[in-house]
Amino acid sequence: MNIIVNGQSMKVDDELNHVDQLLQSFNLQVKTVVVELNRQILMREHHASTVLRDGDRIEIVHFVGGG
Amino acid sequence: MLKIGHHSFHSRLLLGTGKFDDLDVQSQAVEASGTEVLTFAVRRLNLEERGKRHFLDTLDLKRYTLLPNTAGASNAEEAVRTAELARASGLCDMIKVEVIGDGITLLPDPIETYKACEILLEKGFIVLPYISDDVILAKRLQLLGVHAVMPGASPIGAGRGIINPYNLEIIIEQAVVPVIVDAGLRSPKDAAYAMELGADGVLLNTAVSGSGNPVTMAKAMRMGVEAGRLAYEAGMIPIKRYAAASSPAEGMVHT
Hints:
The complex is a heterodimer of chains A (67) and B (255).
Chain A: E1 2-5, E2 8-11, H1 19-26, E3 34-37, E4 40-42, E5 57-65
Parallel strand pairs in A: 1-5
Antiparallel strand pairs in A: 1-2, 3-4, 3-5
Chain B: E1 2-4, E2 7-9, E3 13-16, H1 23-33, E4 37-44, E5 65-68, H2 76-87, E6 94-97, H3 110-122, E7 126-131, H4 135-144, E8 150-151, H5 165-174, E9 180-182, H6 188-196, E10 201-204, H7 206-209, H8 214-234
Parallel strand pairs in B: 3-4, 3-10, 4-5, 6-7, 7-8, 9-10
Antiparallel strand pairs in B: 1-2
Helix pairs in contact in B: 1-8, 2-3, 3-4, 4-5, 6-8
């Protein structure tokens, strides 16, 4: 299926259809990220139960240096 | 003690985490500053840099309170979205409301800042708006219920120091919540001056991260803040027009 992650269109395996699986597939080094799915914040405890669908827009954000 | 909402801090220096070139230097600078509050920005994760070490991950979060900002927001709606993303991390409940109204001066938009504060207070955040040195806006935001006000000394990163001590003094005099002087500071003298005026704290970033030696500068800023605060607590002498001798006028050997 095709999803949009951080503004970029991306093709992912159809089996990779849960948010936690998608995050794991990215192999992120950073410990703390926050996910928005179609403009709704997705709390961490819902990552495993949330199913991704074709056309979903996902934002993965984190803390960076700033004043 | 500096009290903001339910948080209490011994240190009155809040440190920004932007523009440090090196993670180890940054860690040492944070240590040298003695700060207990670190600011962060919220950004999209760059998937190309997903293997990079992150400063936040090197921190002992029992020692530091995170103060995310809404930098990048140009209206209240964007600021609220950023604040909610930050809080969803589960790491913080404070938010520095920063809504920039002009790309050249980076001065905050007072109307959008006010609107954002109103919404964020309803949502239960501990709200610290970054504002210009506007006495009335500071007052109105406090009536709204913000937990601190953060007037700028001069534009962000400009290093021009305190350009309107008069306004800062009035804001401080009238404040019912902590006043944190934020932005534009350059030297320990500026930090000390802000504290001498009675500020409850200062927030620095570029002054440390952009200096020749961030670790040494962090220490200098810590000392500046402490010196200024002590002077404020001690009470400074009044300014006089003419001299007042410090040695006794009696018993001079020549008379």
